[in-house]
Amino acid sequence: MDLTYTEEEEDFRARLRSWLAVSLPKLPPKPDPLDWPGRRTYDTAWQRMLYDAGYAGLHWPVDAGGQGATPTQHLIYLDETERAGAPYVGANFVGLLHAGPTVAAEGTAEQRARWLPPVLRGDEVWCQGFSEPDAGSDLASLRTKAVRDGDSYVVSGSKIWTSHAEVADWCELLVRTDPQAPRHRGISWLAMPMDAPGVTVRPLRTLAGSAEFAEMFLDEVRVPVANRVGEENDGWRVTMVTLSFERGTAFVGEVVACRRTLCELARTARRNGCWDDAVLRRRLGRLNAEFRALWRLTQWNVSEAQNTGGVPGTGGSVFKLRYSHARQELYDTAAEVLGPDAMDLDREWTGDRLSSLSYTIAAGTSQIQQNIVAERILGLPKGR
Amino acid sequence: MDFRLTDDQRALRTGLRELLAGRFGRHALRAAVDREGTVDRELWRELGAAGFFALRLPENEGGAGLGLPEAVLLFEEAGRALLNGPLVATHLAAGRVPGAADGARVVTCATQLRGLIPHFGDADAAVVIHGAGMRIRCPEELPHARRLRSLDPLTPLHRIPDGPKAPPRPDAILLTAAEQLGSAARTTEMAVQYAGEREQFGQPIGGFQAVKHLCAQMLVRTEVARAAVYAAAVTEDFTEIAGAKLLADEAAVQGARDCLQVFGGMGFTWEADVHLHLKRAWLRGRMWLTAAESEEIQAEALASAL
Ligand SMILES: Cc1cc2nc3c(=O)[nH]c(=O)nc-3n(C[C@H](O)[C@H](O)[C@H](O)COP(=O)(O)OP(=O)(O)OC[C@H]3O[C@@H](n4cnc5c(N)ncnc54)[C@H](O)[C@@H]3O)c2cc1C
Q1: Contact criterion met (CB < 8 Å) for A1 and B9
Q2: B206 to chain A: which residues are within 8 Å by CB?
Q3: What pTM value is reported for the model?
Q4: Beta bridge partners of A158
Q5: What is the pLDDT of residue A70?
Q6: What rounded mean pLDDT belongs to chain A?
Q7: Is A166 a catalytic residue?
Q8: Res. A220: pLDDT tops 70
């Protein structure tokens, strides 16, 4: 059990820190949260800066265009960028955190060469077309079909809750290629260009008021067979790779952000007198222990990932279950501290409170995560 | 950074797990219940010989010269096995109270449970911990101690009037948290095993989500507590230690409750071991630091970081 960083790791941290100090002030001002094209421009500009400085795809393998950094260096990266207040991956979320890593792990040499560099440079943005109106938690029941026609698939159906669809160039799309096969065996994983004829995106308004995700209608969209990652009908296995990335590492940096928010909350509470309320004060204290522990759990998971060659294990589900709940508790507590201001949508924490409601739903609901923990980690039987 | 256990740490843990499996299995545990929790002196000496108490003493004082992380691993095993006796107090007394290090004497502590002393009748000495310091009292020097009927059948308790209040010692807090962690891990295992075997409605109850989700939450609480306890052992940071105790207490208490629920009617019997875990977890939850105190320590840390 060693929590000290090696000299090499500290060097890495120091270099990154000084780069951040010089580079962050050069970023353009933050766009309005409702301005999606503006957000895309902002997020990709940040990605380009990372690319130019040699930090893009830090933990991706070198032959995928990444830097081949160790899991620990990646952790330091997330810690430092978050502390420095650097932008969040934002619109680059899918490309950088799971579609890219999936292509790197499962794609052919041509596919890697085609898709990975633009993600790293911030030239192309991806979205995730997994969920359908009738296939959410039960993802394997998806119905969007792809029929082979020469060297193309003709895709028809619809997807829903597709985050960032409005501004994406590519979509990691799950389709049914064999309707006769048992449901897990007839699925394929395709990269679909979002500008292909037949793709219609209709933004959906979230409870937070913004159009964070969209519905997608696919009407005889032609997708080259060459865009299939993995074998035909082997898409479920590829999907499991994608989901392990999505659940494994995607939320790590946010723990640091939560700790920062917690400090700000304490400061506000001291100013407005809430601190004298023992119940509230203790709630804040409890959250301090909680987020510290979640950071330690992250370090634990990252260390364990060294056993598995960097692929995040099921520890990601344990983390996600606890983190999503803790985050909601954080913003509920913030609302107590804010008092009447918690009803003001212009207060930052009010918006954060609303968006935190999605954490126990997106990327697999808490109920589904509990099934995964019980069945895959604890080995309990599958059942109804 | 590599948070994983080293090979030596793993070996140490396995060693104690095997010793306890052989010497303190189900039969011995139940025998201890029948003896109302009095300490098995022979086992105490065996623990002493295995270095349990002297683990952190320097080698030139007859110890193993190891640190808090190693001690935490051992106390986790003790908690898992529900080993009874004033383990933490004797460990702290090693090197100060003659005979503590090798398990020849049983040492309890008068300041770990406000107003109560565990294992008082059994103890050869009672220490009074004061910050980093420690005073030694003989049982005869505490004539007002009155035995009460202890909630935990494995931990006899005496009440002392105006029990001295002392600032808690960080290592004592953390080792108690480690015992809680072991207990939480054990009740999770017990629940999972039972849920896989017990059948209702024609299938193992572990196939039902309501049961599955109880088990999943037990694991989540245990693993979060584990990360907190291990990290606190490495950093020795007081706030982190207090936080680890808070989370480990919760994992142990709630884990035992959920385990009891999974066991159904069987869980409510004296025969099932679940209640022994729950009662001990409740008791440890009041040792050194309560949840409320720990939360205040966290709050103070937040305020002073501003
Ligand atoms: C903000 C946000 C962004 C998203 N972004 C994307 C995206 O970019 N791409 C994408 O493909 N998807 C995305 N999703 C979709 C997300 O993955 C699904 O919403 C999620 O998997 C749940 O599916 P569902 O909404 O159909 O709910 P349902 O599956 O209908 O679930 C409804 C309720 O029933 C419960 N339930 C369902 N099945 C079970 C079961 N077996 N046991 C116990 N309880 C069960 C669920 O836990 C939930 O509480 C996003 C969702 C949100 C909220």
Answers
A1: yes
A2: 374, 380-381, 383
A3: 0.92
A4: A217
A5: 86
A6: 92
A7: no
A8: yes
* Mean of the per-residue pLDDT values of chain B: 94
A104–chain B nearest CA distance, Å: 26
Give the three-state DSSP class for B54: coil
Report the distance separating Cα B43 and Cα B23, nearest Å. Answer: 7
Q: Answer yes or no: are the C-beta atoms of B204 and A384 closer than 8 Å.
A: no
8 Å CB contact of A1 and B219 = no
C-beta pairs of A31-35 under 8 Å, 24+ apart in sequence: A33/A210, A33/A351, A34/A209, A34/A210, A34/A211
Taking the C-alpha atoms of residue B15 and residue B23, their distance in angstroms, rounded to an integer, is: 12
The phi and psi torsions of A228 (rounded to 5 degrees) equal: -85, 130
For residue A248, pLDDT over 60 is answered with: no
Ligand 1 contact via A365 beta carbon (within 6 Å): yes
Per the model's pLDDT, the better-predicted residue between B136 and A378 turns out to be A378
Give the separation between CA A7 and CA A215, rounded to whole angstroms.
Answer: 49
A224: amino acid identity, one letter: P
- pLDDT recorded at residue A241: 79
Q: Which of A198, A27, A170 is nearest to A91 (CA)?
A: A170
Q: What is the pLDDT of residues A221-243, one digit of tens each?
A: 999 999 999 999 999 999 887 77
To the nearest whole Å, the CA of A304 is away from the closest chain B CA by: 7
Q: Which residues contact A254 (CB under 8 A, 6 or more apart)?
A: A82, A323, A327
Sign of CA dihedral A95, A96, A99, A102: positive
Pairing of strands A126-129, A170-176: parallel
Q: Which residues contact A233 (CB under 8 A, 6 or more apart)?
A: A177, A178, A181, A185, A186, A187, A188
Average pLDDT on A61-81 reads 91
DSSP, collapsed to helix, strand or coil, labels residue B199 as strand
The H-or-E segment that residue A308 falls in is: none
Tallying the residues shown for chain A, one arrives at 384
Segment A48-67 mean pLDDT:
93
